[in-house]
Amino acid sequence: MTSAVHLRNVSRRYTVGTGEVFALRDVDLDIEQGEFVVVLGPSGSGKTTLLNLIGALDTASTGQVIVSGSEISSAPRHELFRFRRETVSFVFQSFNLFPTLTALENVQCAVEIAGRAKGAKQKAAAVLAEVGLAERVHHYPAELSGGEQQRVAIARALATGNPILVADEPTGDLDFHTGVQVLEVLQQQAALGHTVIVVTHNREISRIADRVIELSGGRVVRDGPPSGGKAAVADLHW
Ligand code: ADP
To answer: What sign does the CA torsion over 133, 136, 140, 141 have?
Structure first.
């Protein structure tokens, strides 16, 4: 299955009182399978709206949103349910792990809910090892650092097998150093073939990305390598 994302002249507007607010305006974007994209922009620039459209949690007012070959802007309801379950996984700022389940159980549970019960435990353990948590599988969230909890959340998103991962401010609750580590884990997953789209307002962290899409007032105002070129972790300003 292709996991490319295409937006064609997409706008999302809200009616507020007697006026209209554009959360996104005339956005054209192509994100290819295996790309690691960071979306930057100040609060209110449309970042969450963009992720929600890609994840079929919201629909465009005008234009086309095509994800993994499905035109979700016009898909019927039952197809959207399937799409949400099988195509896009979300990672949030606040981890959202079950506190009463271990790291392994949190990931296993997600795999089972995704309808892939057979081998779910082995799959969960393998993905936790991929994000560097092989030694932590039996720990409860409260016994893990913030960065480790976020890596469990990333493992949970990846273990479902969904080809696209979107992360809304996944480093927002983490210190700079841990935030960079989490971004690196996401980048590695893109190198393994997932399409990874990350929202951050942290310009410094975004310097390790290959591609940065900047939003302002609902429009794409910049799309390319980080300004100043791609940085190595060692070059970031702590
Ligand atoms: P960001 O994630 O960059 O902070 P959002 O995508 O959340 O931005 O919001 C973009 C713009 O759309 C903001 O001006 C916001 O106030 C507006 N907006 C978002 N959701 C709604 C809504 N449900 N009703 C009215 N305006 C909204």
So the answer is: negative
Please name which of 230, 179, 195, 155 lies closest in space to residue 51, comparing C-alpha atoms. Answer: 195
Q: Express each pLDDT in 3-51 by its tens digit.
A: 799 999 999 999 999 999 999 999 999 999 999 999 999 999 999 999 9
Taking only the tens place, the pLDDT of each residue in 44-76 is: 999 999 999 999 999 999 999 999 998 998 888
pTM of the predicted protein model:
0.91
DSSP 8-state secondary structure symbol assigned to residue 102: -
Residue 143's contacts (CB-CB under 8 Å, 6 or more residues apart) are none
Indicate which atom in ligand 1 lies nearest the CA of residue 50. Answer: 6
DSSP annotation of 82 reads H
Atom of ligand 1 nearest to the CA of 24: 10
> Reduced to 3 DSSP states, what percent helix, strand and coil does the chain have, rounded to the nearest 5?
35, 25, 40
* Residue among 22, 45, 53 to mutate when testing ligand 1 (max atoms within 8 A of CB): 45
